[in-house]
From TrEMBL:
Organism: Crypthecodinium cohnii
Biased composition (Basic and acidic residues): 89-112
Segments forming domain SAP: 12-46
SUPFAM superfamilies: BRCT domain, Domain of poly(ADP-ribose) polymerase, Glucocorticoid receptor-like (DNA-binding domain), SAP domain, WGR domain-like
Domain WGR residue range list: 531-633
TM region positions: none
Name of the protein in question: NAD(+) ADP-ribosyltransferase
Amino acid sequence: MAPKRAPAAEDFSKLTVAELKERLTALGSSTSGAKGVLVDRLKALTEAKASAKAKPEAKARGKAKAKAKEEAEEEEAPPAPKRGAKAKAKAEAEPTKRAAPKAKAEAEEPPAKRAKAAAASPAKGSKRNADGDVKTSQQEEEPEDNATISGPSEVFYEDGVFSAEYAKSNRSKCTKCKKPIEMGTMRIGKSQQSDKFDGMYTAWQHFECLVKGGVLPKSTQIIAGYGSLKGADQDLIASKVPSEAAGGAAESEELKAQSKKLHEIMDVLNQLSDKQHKEMLELNNLPSQKFGDKAASKVEMIADGILFGAPQPCEVCEGALILSGEGYRCRGWVSEFLKCTFKTQTPSREVWELSEAAKSAGGGKLKKMKLKTGDRIFYGELRDDDEIAAAASSQKRPAFLGHTFVVLERGDTLSKEELEEMIKKNGGSIADNITKVAYCVISHGGVVEKEEEEDEDHEGVAKATKLQVCGVGENFVTESIEAGEMMDLAPYILWGEPPRRKQVAEGQTSRFIEKMGVNMDADVGEEIAQQAHVLVDKSKKRVYSEMLTRTDVATGANSFYTMHLLESDDASSRKYWVFRKWGRIGVSQGGTKLQEFPSLQSAINDFSKQFYDKTGNQYSEASSSFVVKTGKFVRIELEHKALGKKKAEGADGDQGGQQGGGNDQPLGKLSKSQIEKGDAVLDKVEATINDSSLSAAKQLATCQALSAEFYTMIPHNFGAKKPPVINNTELLGAEKALLQFYLRMGFEEMGGEEEEKLTPIQGVMELPVPATLHESAHMVCSVKDIKSCVTKGTTMHKKKAGKPQKPMTPDLYGSILLYTSNAIYKQLNKALRDEDRTTVEKYFPSLRFLFE
């Protein structure tokens, strides 16, 4: 019999959008998305359904075939030999013999005691459940994600950067329930500082999960994109979030009418492919990709243009204005170093131009519209992110806000009900079952203490351990409430490992290990640091270690990117690694990656690729003709002893000592040429400040761009704060003094064969610290110079310039200024190089004060 021919696959692309949605609805699937998305979804569901139907049929055929084979084999097989009566009797007697001791013990034990023991200890193969009841292994386990969550006693309304939109794909996950957010589903997000990179990210949630968590926006006006939602979804949010709209109900209805028109246009646009969407955006001089995290979707932007007109370029930088939240934001750059921050709700517009595909979509519905320009109604105001962040950080938050807990049985002294009430009163949520959603489980010490007759963990402990959810004692709850903030879990652990808390704290960015004349970041790890070093090619005067930076005073970014190509110390069996580290200068924010390569060339290829991706420059041209590219990282030149005249430390393979950035330089000691580049930028800042022909706005914009360039060239540690704009003489003077200090410090590391013969200055640090700058320097310079430096030092002291690690007096600041000025530098430098070491001794008091 000839095999049946498989039916031809249905061509779903021939169906209309309405037909596609009807078929998907029948299958119980989402109907959101463009036509191409609907086609792919229907095809996948149809194939899955056909596959599921085919499996039982195939299984039945397989069973029938196996049964026929088994019957045939039984007919041919000889009968099994019979066991003897003696063997059979022995086999039947063995179970009785094994059970005898247990029966004897039970017979000797009093009935009352046996009953008590049976009630107290679970039977073999059983466990206690979360309430302490015995549950046999035959009972069906609850699904891992099946938990009912009850929110805090009171809703906490907070300020912040909130967004509302329909999910653009299926990739995002709800940060509350950990489940995917289906494409087209309304989601609410809050912008939060990332611990993985220098910047912010949006933590999305299902709206239902947001409500259950008890943390809501303080008003609908601060939810960017609220006005772009469908009317029903606006009503849903407004039922839970307060409204502060000045226009009241009338404005709300007007906004809903506008939203209805936009979504009617979007329904027609969804019949077009993604490629056709991009073509229409480009036709109207708008970008077709890389809009940013908070920007509207392509379909939303096209619908906005059709109804109100195409937004014209930014009036500041000529960049494209993109619909984003409650207005339009520029995606351009003022300079290679400064991102444009222009934003508006009323951009200049031109009538939208429809593509041929759009004209025919939806039966020509868009073509029939009379297109014109107009102003869009926005529900909220455009606010700066740093302004919102400052308002949000000033709010006092409950200790357990945003976290979900499970109380297992009870605490050591408090009941389950008491603990749950305390948690909910302090902003926490309670789950009735242990799932991955739980931050931790609160219980008592008894759950981890096994009885003699128990050979398994408490069921709740076992489940939590499997899900990697730790358990803590009740003191965690009481002490967190007393402190007014959630305590670290580690001191309260009953079982498991505490989750890593995503905290971004200020601190030292890097510690370096000097090895073979090159500083290697200590985060390569102790094992690698002991067996490898940074590769140096002396023939090309190249050190395979790069420090890249990018600072933007507009957005507040102050990023670094470190790269090392490492070579093993053992020359007989070479190994190679590429190490990368990134984050924000002076903040525990970022990450690292170490990757091993089979050969030197493959490691160099990867190192070069990473360098190009980050800077837009070929690595082979890095030192000679580096060109700054807009929005990319910039290469920073550092000093490396491996390329100097002096013998490098650790040249025999020994590991040098750990050190910080070097002379308060957070990313390593800058080269002389790098410092001179920064000084040239400050000269431009000075010229801008003194140029009276510039308007205030133009002067500020220029100073912003130059400040970003300067901080990129000369890395600064601002911690989590936004880099300040250098637009006044006080800041300018402090930065110039800092550069002079960087440039002229380091006389203790003088190079050259003749200078190496000189005896280093000794005994300076044994001297008592002079009380004032005058006491330390009146023998080597004029009183006028001393007074001038103390006056300038007073200004620096008030501003805490340089963020000193310990208190700095005006006189101490003055000592730095005195050294970096021409008052004593020339004479001191000469004395340091004089073979007669006594000539430098008169400078010892001023040097002692300077080193302090």
